[in-house]
Write a structure and sequence with these properties.
Elements lengths: L1 H13 L1 H34 L2 E2 L7 E2 L3 H8 L1 H8 L1 H22 L6 H13 L2 H12 L4 H8 L17 H26 L3 H9 L4 H12 L1 H15 L4 H6 L9 H11 L3 H31 L4 H18 L4
Antiparallel strand pairs: 1-2
Helix pairs in contact: 3-15, 4-14, 5-9, 5-12, 6-9, 7-9, 10-16, 12-15, 14-15
Length: about 325
């Protein structure tokens, strides 16, 4: 009896479906273990820390939601959160420029490969290095001021790009445009080049100009990549760290949410408050993403394929006419 059971179990273990499941489980075991150990367990610990007044070493005092209230009542925390607006605006400018250059470079352009390489290169540079580049670029009397003096401006009339609180956040946010535009451009180029070329031909026969092709063919066809890039850009704008940390050190009112969080956690040893800030940021990113997806679904979901379907219908009619199927 036991021999029969062993044989049946062995046959079951060697069956195709069981082997397939075992392979799936085996391949998933290591990455899932690493994900749980190094992501979800620390995240759960951070949620617990957010309810305590604590340092890395020493006694802890349970304070409930006091840390969360302090995030919105402390001037430095709330002001840092408002600075994200500069980077959100910069992200939209960056996406607009990336889409513009991607549309131009997706077609045959003289030295197009060289332009693509130059525009994508900043994304390959380390964020810390980018920060140092622009730190010297904006420093008084250095690169930017020298170029403006060549154009006829007087040095005394130029602002302090990193100290003047009316312009320094715009200056720092502009570095994100320079760094990430090439990455988004490459993603847009890949999406645009996947559009059926016959659609352009049919649109050209119907007398469509370049802008109409972009509006009625390209834009609806690459909407998924546009939505993805917008979500990544806006969520990234809420968690900017490297540019203000390296360029200004967070001084002169340029300290973003992550910079203030870093100072509280590592300099002031307010681990509980920094953990609460991280949780608040996560919730804000989730809310912004949901709102953004809802707006984009409404905008792109109404009549987004009508023009494409019309062009395809026109193309099909032309093919039938060429074959003599339509008189």
């Amino acid at each position: 009896m036991n021999t029969k059971k062993m044989k049946s179990f062995s046959a079951w273990l060697k069956s195709g479906k069981v082997n397939q499941k075992l392979v799936i489980i085996t391949f998933m075991l290591v990455p899932l273990t690493l994900l749980i150990v190094f992501t979800y367990i620390p995240f759960g610990k951070m949620i617990g820390f957010s309810f305590y007044d604590m340092k890395y070493i020493g006694d802890r005092e349970f304070v409930g939601f006091q840390n969360y209230l302090e995030v919105f009542t402390r001037k430095d925390c709330f002001s840092a959160l408002k600075l994200s607006g500069y980077y959100i605006v910069a992200s939209f400018i960056q996406l607009g420029l990336a889409l513009y250059f991607a549309y131009i470079l997706s077609f045959k352009t003289k030295a197009g490969g060289v332009f693509k390489g130059f525009m994508f290169f900043p994304y390959l540079v380390c964020g810390i290095a980018v920060g140092f580049i622009f730190k010297f670029f904006y420093t008084r009397g250095f690169v930017l001021d020298t170029v403006l003096q060549w154009c006829g401006f007087e040095l005394e009339n130029l602002p302090y790009w990193l100290k003047d609180t009316s312009i320094n956040n715009i200056s720092v946010a502009a570095t994100s445009i320079w760094r990430y535009m090439g990455q988004n451009m490459v993603m847009f180029i890949g999406a645009i080049m996947s559009v059926d070329a016959s659609l352009y031909e049919a649109a050209a026969i119907d007398g469509a100009n370049g802008f109409q092709k972009f509006r009625y063919i390209v834009l609806p066809s690459i909407k998924t990549i546009i939505v993805l890039n917008m979500i990544l850009s806006i969520t990234g704008s809420l968690s900017v760290f490297e540019p203000p940390y390296v360029i200004t050190g967070g001084n002169f009112g340029t300290g973003t949410y992550f910079v203030i969080m870093n100072k509280l956690a590592h300099e002031s040893q307010k681990v509980g408050l920094a953990s609460a800030m991280a949780i608040v940021l996560l919730v804000l990113i989730m809310i912004v993403t949901l709102i953004q997806k809802g707006i984009e679904r409404y905008y792109f979901g109404v009549g987004d394929h009508e023009a494409v379907r019309a062009v395809r219908k026109r193309k099909k009619q032309m093919e039938l006419q060429a074959k003599g199927g339509v008189k």
